[in-house]
Amino acid sequence: MSELLGVLSPKNILPKTAVEKVMEYYTPVLEQKFDDFPRRARELEQLVHMADRYKKIRAFLDDLTLEPPTSSADLEGNLKGERLTLSTIHSAKGLEWPVVFIIWLMEGRFPPARAYQNDEALEEERRLLYVASTRAKDQLVLCYPGQESAPSWQTAGYGLRNGLSSFVQALPTEVLTFESGFRYPGTRTFGRNWNQGATSPQSAGGNHPFRQGDRVKHPAFGMGVVSRFLDSDKVEVFFQSVGRKLLHLRCMRKGCPMMRR
Predict the structure, then answer these.
(1) What is the dihedral sign for C-alpha 48, 50, 53, 59?
(2) Which residues contact 174 (CB under 8 A, 6 or more apart)?
(3) Cα R_g (the chain), whole angstroms
(4) What is the pLDDT of residues 98-124, one digit of tens each?
(5) Closest of 146, 169, 43, 162 to residue 112, by C-alpha
(6) In this predicted model, what pLDDT tens digit does every residue of 147-170 receive, in sequence order?
(7) Which of 63, 64, 110, 170 has its Cα between 20 and 30 A from that of 47?
(8) pTM for this structure?
(9) Where are the alpha helices (DSSP H) in the chain?
């Protein structure tokens, strides 16, 4: 370690060189510690490419470190410039923004899987979501990767399967507007409102047993929320476990019933 620190001590060392030396030192340790080292190594390689864009260590670290403003007053002069602030929830305490995005609201991430081992830890995670949500003055956007982000649909650990955060599932549907943020290859459009083009059960020409926003339970897909009706026999449901599904009511009546909760 002392040898590594000696290599890194010169003030004029290039950021790329410093990152390469650190990786060279820690690679044997990481190989022994992590079974998925090849994947981790590929991710760490991105640091080398990032560092290559800088000439000074300080500039590289300043851009790499997540340091939000210390007060809301610090933001006032920059709001009109459409400034984007990245922050952790802990760092955001006491701050406010007109619009706040909270990302990765899925089981195993928020709340993390380990929180389910302790009731106090789970309530602390719930409190953190409250803190994050109340940072928004005008608009709060709760982001969830959904089925379009296939790598996210892996087992989170402790027997939990990733899905929409139970914290969000517990919110009243009348205060939420569901949107799909998926993007087709070759396009730049995203953010289709799930309510756009939606029809009511009556205008769809059918006598549906469900209404938009109903919480439902499907024998195969589990818990979900009715997002819209497409016609007299088709309903779109957002399921916690598998994302968005288009279901035929005729088939459900025959052998795979979905119940309102």
Answers:
(1) negative
(2) 213
(3) 24
(4) 999 999 888 778 888 778 778 888 899
(5) 162
(6) 544 444 444 444 444 567 878 877
(7) 110
(8) 0.47
(9) 2-8, 15-33, 37-51, 57-64, 119-133, 166-169, 249-254
Q: In the prediction, which pLDDT does 189 show? A: 32
Whether residue 47 contacts residue 17, with contact meaning beta carbons closer than 8 Å, is answered with no
Q: Which amino acid is at 9?
A: S
3-state secondary structure of 93: coil
Which domains does the chain carry?
2-64 (no CATH), 81-171 (3.40.50.300), 215-260 (no CATH)
Tokens of 197: 């083009």
How far is it, in rounded angstroms, from Cα 8 to Cα 19? 9
71 or 91: which leads in pLDDT? 91
Q: Can you give the pLDDT at residue 163?
A: 67
- The pLDDT tens digits for 177-186 are 776 554 434 3
Dig out the tokens for 78 from the structure.
């920059």
Tokens of 126: 């719930």
Distance CA 5, CA 22 (A): 9
Q: Which residues pair with 259 in a beta bridge?
A: 217
Instruction: Give bridge partners of residue 215 from the DSSP assignment.
Output: 225
For residue 19, CA distances in Å to 24, 32, 48, 50, 114 come to 9, 20, 6, 10, 32
The dihedral formed by the CA atoms of 22, 25, 30 and 36, expressed in degrees to the nearest 10: 70
Q: Answer yes or no: is pLDDT of 224 > 70.
A: yes
Dihedral in degrees, nearest 10, Cα atoms 217, 220, 222, 224:
-70
